[in-house]
Amino acid sequence: MATAIPTWYRPLIAWRGVMVALTLTATIGVLLRRGIVLDGPIRWTLLLALAGATVGTVHALRATRDRRHAGRFAGFAVDFLTAVILAFIALNRMGMFVGLDAVGEAFNRSFGWGLIVVLGWFISGLAGRAGGSQRALQTAARWVMIGGLVVLALSMGLIPGLVEFARRAIAPSVLPLLILAVTAGWFARLQWSEPAGRFFATTQRQAETMDGWLFVAPNLLGFLAFFAGPLIVSLFISFTEWDGLTDATFVGLAHYSALLSDGLFLRSLRNIAVFGLFAIPLAVIPALFLAALLNSKIPGVRFFRAIYFLPSIAGVVGVTLIWKQLFNSTIGYLNFMILEATELINTVFGTGLEAAQPQWISDPAIALTAVIILFVWQQIGFNTVLFVAGMQGIDKTLYEAAQIDGAGPWKQFINITVPSLRATTFFVVATTTILALQLFNEPYILQSPSPAAGPGNATLTPVVYLVQNAFQEFQIGYASAVAWALFVLIFVVTLLYFRRSGEDGVLST
Amino acid sequence: MTKRLILLLTVLAMVAAACGSDSTTTTDAPATTQAPQTTEAPATTQAPDTTDTTVEAMDDVTLRWMTRPDNPEEAAVYGSISDQLDGSLDGISLVYEPGSNEGAGYQQTLLTNLSAGTAPDVFWIPGTDIADFASRGVILDLRQYADATGHNDADFYPGPMAHLTTELDTGQPGNALWGLPRDVSTFALYVNLDLIAEAGAPNPVELEANGEWTWEKFQEVVDAVAALGGEVKGYGQSAWWGPYGAWLNASGGGFFTDDRTACGLDSAESIAGLSALRDLYSGESVIPYGEDPEGPFRAGAVGMFQNGRWATPGIRTVDFNWDVVGLPSGPAGPGNWLFWGAYVVNADTADPEAAWSLVQALTQADVQAQISELGANIPSRVSQDALDAFLGFTPPENNQAFLDGLANDPTTEGPLWAGSWPEFVGLMDGAIQAVVTGERDIADFEANICSETAAAFSG
Questions:
Q1: B291, A101: Cβ pair inside 8 Å?
Q2: If we measure between CA atoms, which residue out of B92, B112, B108 comes closest to residue B100?
Q3: Is the pLDDT score of B225 beyond 90?
Q4: Is the peptide bond before B396 cis (omega within 30 degrees of 0)?
Q5: CB–CB of A103 and B137 under 8 A?
Q6: CA nearest to A324 within chain B
Q7: What residues of chain A lie within 8 A of the CB of B302, using their CB?
């Protein structure tokens, strides 16, 4: 039996047509630089998004006309996104997001009334629990709460604020956007409703899929806006010559080709490879043994777990500044301890050793070593905690069985603990590797006020090089290419870990 | 029902509070503005003169401004100054932004804001960035507004003003006006008087007063202090362009040719200065090149430490007798630098006249005096009152050393109008460090450095 055509169907089709016209017009407008002035990669990114929206609206129109669920779904998605994006733009034009800063100040000013509201709510709740005998108190407290809330709102400027809100909302640059946003929101709500589901013959599974998308929408939109979006924009920027201030010029793969012969970039890659070669094993292997120690039942073990974890939660700037003092070749404690240890050895053994006094930060031969020491010190505690957590998940009966079979602690560690920790080890190694390849803060602060690249570029890392290009030399395009080259490096290394771990069956455990 | 009412009222209250902020309300400025007072500073910390900083008949305008503070105390002073000016600039409301935060430095924040079109109306940039910002059209040429308000370039030190008035097409000082200097600074030697006395070395402050403060005497003091042994060293400087540049300047050389269109590092004078620096570092008497000497100096292990006025607040915490002395004279004098940064106006500001008024107000002598009192800056305005006030901000006792640095023909730091300063510095830093630490032969440096840095020049 054919479903009767609901009254909203024709308006919906008309709205779909309007959306196609709007997205197409906006796409052409941006393409021809009409209406709004946008330059550089932002313009091209917007163009791409609008072209995608046009395709989406056309698809939604056709499928809606054919009364297919795909039309309902695509239309809902387009309307939902349109409502959110246009509302965001409208509120931004109204200055609401800048104004949000004032919310805190307004609350501060009206803090006393806020306390009265809380007090009313608290007493009302208590009186409610007491039952009928305190009904009058509950009612009085509730009215105090409501009254306090009204005064709070008024003292925050409710009336003038609403007038101002209305004044800004009817501004010519805002009102059309708000009308479109509300209309799109209304149609999105309509297509999400059960009558629309019945009309488009949506199955239970399809309805659940729509609900699921709606649930993840806030997170997904945040991810797209603040992570994936910038990522794609940076990829685009890497194909341009752009200083961040003026128009970008498309240069294709020129930056990537230049990277291959850029001595400084290659030096940064060499440095990070050497760094990783030492820093990763040193931050992982000792952590494993330390975790074994901290997983035992020795007294005060919880205290030591906290102590070892401290470096990883301490601010990297503060920690690095302390290490900078320790590394100082003139007054640093490291060289002082070397001096004292050498004197002790000479005294005890009657030798005439001369104490080495390394210039940890300024000697090109060992400047990277100082960074490795600092990185390992910071990272080892966190890795230890991860290993301890992994060890606590190992089945205790395995150890009992091994003990019955006569295995000692070392054999138990090698044959039970280490294999059982493969998944944890994979995670620890992968995250440590990623952190190592993104090294920036440590050399940057250790070397200051000298250039972060260090003596003879000994501590030049890809991220340091990226920052130098982007924010000191205004070469955002080239810096983006460095960022993507680093991304590819990290991706390949992680992929190799995954493949190796997959072959070992780690990821299925 | 009650819950919905509460929710509705809460949302409305937040909307109202948000709308209550006028931070985005900007309206057109009138055609005429009145000049702020441009000369004569009061003694120290009193509020800016409100009578002469008003802008006539200006409608409500909100300006955002940003400058880089060196520490939280300085940020608080800038915030306080913003509040004072907010009350004194008629029709202009101010929002101060320190710029940097835990996640991003000042330069990153500024560049990101500029890229996004959300940069403040007025912001501070280092003197070396003026050309980059001006040539990219990011900052306004303020000359028309300056002319309308009776501004006089001569109220400020000529070195920074030469760069701030440089024409884009000629690369030479002309009639442009890219901003006004916030403050200036020069190098001095921070001296540990206790250590110098213990070493039996002559007091550099007295040597300077007697006109005997030369490279030779400097070396004597360095060696005498280092002879105390242990961890004690005679001298330390950081490994960036300022400290080593002073040695080149003092020999009569420099980074560039006189017209700043080509590399001057291979001149005989520059090589002589670099040789002197290399010789100094070839011994054991100094903090190794590349190590930050400030920590050892504050620990009382260094006799002399070269740095700018900005190091003063940190040095004030030490518990030994200290003072400052000018840089020792080389063949061509002390060779000091004049460091500076400027307030500039965003080219996209909706209210250029109001922004110019703010720039003028921020560079008044009394405002500069408030900043200077913290110890990190020297007023950029040529005003005897401002300088007198600066001299009173002790310790150090010998504040005059910094002013002498300004008076004794310093080389003004500045951008490359025909090239890229950051690129030049990036290439130069490594090469100089290699020479000073003995990894590169100075003859090789002399033969190749200018071809190595040629890419930094666009001319």
A1: no
A2: B108
A3: yes
A4: yes
A5: no
A6: B292
A7: 330
In chain A, the residue whose alpha carbon lies closest to the alpha carbon of B7 is: A149
Asked whether the predicted pLDDT for residue B353 surpasses 60, the reply is yes
Calculate how close chain A gets to B239, using CA atoms only, in Å.
5
Q: Which residues of A touch B72 (CB under 8 A)?
A: none
Average pLDDT over chain A reads: 88
Mutation site for A-interface testing, chosen from B3, B7, B9, B15 by largest number of A Cβ within 10 Å? B15
Tell me the three-class secondary structure of chain B, residue by residue.
CHHHHHHHHHHHHHHHHHHHCCCCCECCCCCCCCCCCCCCCCCCCCCCCCCCCCCCCCCCEEEEEECCCCCHHHHHHHHHHHHHHHHHCCCEEEEEECCCCCCCCHHHHHHHHHHHCCCCCEEEEEHHHHHHHHHCCCECCCHHHHHHCCCCHHHECHHHHHHHCECCCCCCECCCCCCEEEEEECEEEEEEHHHHHHHCCCCHHHHHHCCCCEHHHHHHHHHHHHCCCCCCEEEECCCCHHHHHHHHHHCCCCCECCCCCCECCCCHHHHHHHHHHHHHHHCCCECCCCCCCHHHHHCCCEEEEEEEHHHHHHHCCCCCCEEEECCCEECCECCCEEEEEEEEEECCCCCHHHHHHHHHHHCCHHHHHHHHCCCCCEECECCHHHHHHHHCCCCCCCCHHHHHHHHCCCEECCCCCCECHHHHHHHHHHHHHHHHCCCCCHHHHHHHHHHHCHHHECC
**Number of Cβ within a 10 Å radius of residue B147:** 11
Q: Which residues in A376-387 are b (16+ Cβ under 10 Å) and which e?
A: bebbbbbbbbbb
What is the separation of C-alpha B227 from the centre of its chain, rounded to a whole number of angstroms?
A: 35
pLDDT at site B55: 41
Helices (H), A131-248: 135-155, 158-169, 175-192, 194-199, 204-223, 229-237
Give B137's contacts in chain A (Cβ within 8 Å).
Answer: 245-246
Say which residue, B339 or B313, is predicted with more confidence: B339
Chain A residues within 8 A of B240 when measuring between CB atoms: 449-451
Nearest Cα of chain A lies from the Cα of B289 at a distance, in angstroms, of: 7
pLDDT in tens, A357-404: 899 998 999 999 999 999 999 999 999 999 999 999 999 999 999 999
Per-residue confidence (pLDDT) for residue B99, from 0 to 100: 77
**CA pair distance A443, A370, nearest whole angstrom:** 9
From B155's Cα to the closest Cα of chain A, the distance in A is 31
- pLDDT given at position A296: 82
Higher pLDDT, B15 or A153: A153
Residue A48's pLDDT is what?
Answer: 85
Question: Do the chains contact at A158 and B5, CB–CB below 8 Å?
Answer: no
Model ipTM over 0.85: no
Q: Are A348 and A440 in contact (CB under 8 A)?
A: no
pLDDT in tens, A333-358: 999 999 999 999 999 998 888 888 89
As a whole number of angstroms, the distance between CA A236 and CA A247 comes to 14
CB proximity A244 to B under 8 Å? yes
Nearest Cα of chain B lies from the Cα of A286 at a distance, in angstroms, of 30
> Is the model's pLDDT at A507 over the cut of 80?
no
φ, ψ of residue B278 to 5 degrees: the values are: -60, -40
Q: Find the mean pLDDT for residues B183-188.
A: 92
Give Cβ neighbours of residue A216 (< 8 Å, ≥ 6 apart): none
* Min Cα–Cα distance to chain B from A371, Å: 14
Q: What is the pLDDT of residues B189-200, one digit of tens each?
A: 999 999 999 999
d(CA B300, CA A395): 58
CB-based contact (8 Å) between A99 and chain B? Answer: yes
The pTM is what?
0.78
Contact of B270 with B432, CB cutoff 8 Å: no
